[in-house]
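Assess this one:
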Amino acid sequence: MSLAWELVLAPLRPGSVVLALKALPLCIPLIGLLKNRMYTYRWVSLMVWLYFTEGVVRAYSDAAPSRWYALAEALLCVALFTACALHVRLRFQHAKAAAAAAPAI
C-alpha cells in the first residue's frame, strides 16, 4: 500500500521516489515472521508505531486523496500491532501450558 500511495495514487511530489523508500524497512522482518520467530513479532509491534505516527500526521495535514490513504495506514498499523500482540500472548500461553504439562525430572 505504501508504494502505491507514494508512487501512483497520491504522491506528494509527482516523479519523486524518496517517500516510497519508507516501505523498505517493512521488508526486513518478513523472513523472521515467516520463520515464526517470537523476537521478530515483538520488535515489529514496536516498529509499526512509526508508521502509525506518520499516518496520523498525514491524515491531519494532507489534502483529501492522501488523507484517506494515511487514515488507512494508521488503521492497518493498529491491526498489525493487535495481531502481533495477540500472537505473542498466545505463544506465551501455549509455552506455559506445555511447561506445566511436561513431567518434572
Summary: DSSP finds four helices and no strands in the chain. The two ends are 52 Å apart (CA to CA).
